[in-house]
Design a protein that fits this description.
With 373 residues, the protein is an alpha+beta fold. The protein has eleven helices and seven strands. Helix 1 runs antiparallel to helix 4 and helix 9 runs antiparallel to helix 10.
């Protein structure tokens, strides 16, 4: 089967997927030029296809460009039309290919349709993960013991995805409180990613699309006051799935026609990587980069990063939590789960108390999430 027939088969096989109405205005770009680069090619067809199956985002102008047959919705048929137009086939395809049932798609892969830009390298699927770590197994563990346990998981993830292990590990520490938050313990959700049944998601997501965990969370207004919101978060079978979903989001989520976190794949400097994540809108806290970097430096998390030649780091010497030199970092937040509200982290408890006194509604928490002031 040649590539065109394979493309037809892939697109027709997806034609039954739910679609979305278009409310865009007129565009000056050529119909089908979804990414607005001045040419219509197979990548434009792929963007339209990804949108039709809920694994891609398009702005209003792109939606109009993707609606190749101008029927008000973007479907796999539009993607087919764009593809045929890009290779000069503007007449109807052979009648033997008119129905998906007449086409053998058993040996067809999406890579037969188009090669995506080199910057987009998708991770392995959840089915290829063999370990099944439960965060609940680490309930009550000291921070160093948790890091010893999960550090290698982030190294393995970097090898697959190119996302720096030290940065993802630091995000896990900050957002789950060393795996002691209720959300991580009961839902294996290590990064606070929200989710709703039927919600569209990003390419390579390890979330099943239906499993959610409902919980009350504290949100903060611009003036610093807080309020409680009952919200839904993604629930995962294991910690590995949560890590994979988080990396897939950083790798493939789009902001219009561009990658939201462009440059994150393969970045080897943890401060630069943290800044890319902050700039992409992952967090609103003004000191987010400094918080992530301070955690990396405190726990020497770069020891879990792949070496320059791409090989795994040397075996990490295990440090137990009984060390007499271990310091306690006190975090000042409105609640333990609301890490975005954090205004400081202090090794001296008196300094943390002073910050609480100056900010009504805030509390000082130890590393286990317990209120100490």
């Amino acid at each position: 089967m040649d590539n065109f027939k394979k493309a037809v088969a892939v697109l027709l096989a997806a034609s039954s997927v739910a679609t979305y109405a278009i409310t865009a205005s007129a565009s000056d770009f050529e119909k089908g030029d979804v990414n607005r680069d001045g040419s219509v090619n197979a990548y434009d067809a792929l963007l339209a296809l990804r949108y039709s199956v809920r694994i891609g985002e398009l702005d209003n102008e792109q939606l109009e460009l993707a609606d190749f047959d101008q029927d008000g919705i973007v479907t796999a048929n539009d993607s087919l039309g764009i593809l045929r137009h890009s290779i000069g086939l503007d007449k109807e395809y052979d009648e033997t290919l008119e129905t998906p049932s007449e086409i053998d798609v058993s040996d067809i892969e999406l890579t037969d349709l188009v090669t995506e830009p080199a910057a987009i390298e998708y991770p392995e699927t959840a089915e290829e993960i063999t370990t099944r770590t439960q965060v609940a197994e680490m309930k009550g563990w000291a921070p160093q013991d948790v890091i010893n346990k999960v550090g290698p998981l982030f190294t393995a993830d970097q090898k697959k995805t190119g996302i720096l292990a030290s940065v993802s590990l630091a995000q896990f520490i900050v957002e789950s409180g060393y795996g002691q938050s209720r959300l991580s313990l009961e839902a294996n959700n290590c990064f606070g990613i929200k989710g709703y049944p039927g919600q569209s998601t990003w390419y390579g997501s390890a979330w099943d699309g239906v499993s959610v965990y409902n919980i009350n969370t504290n949100e903060q207004t611009a003036d610093g006051s807080t309020y409680v919101v009952y919200d839904s978060f993604r629930m995962y079978d294991c910690m590995e799935d949560s890590i994979e979903d988080h990396s897939a989001y950083l790798r493939t989520s789009m902001n219009g026609s561009k990658l939201r976190y462009e440059g994150i794949i393969g970045c080897t400097d943890y401060r630069t990587a943290a800044q890319i994540i902050k700039n992409g809108g992952y967090a609103t806290a003004v000191n987010y980069v400094d918080v992530i970097c301070s955690v990396i430096e405190r726990w020497d998390l770069t020891q879990y990063d792949l070496q320059e030649d791409g090989t795994a780091p040397a075996p990490v010497q295990t440090v137990t939590s009984t060390s007499s030199n271990e310091k306690i970092l006190y975090r000042v937040r409105t609640s333990w789960d609301n890490w975005q509200s954090q205004i400081g982290a202090y090794y001296v408890l008196d300094n943390a108390k002073a910050a609480v006194d100056q900010n009504p509604g805030y509390h000082a928490y130890d590393e286990d999430g317990n209120v100490v002031y």
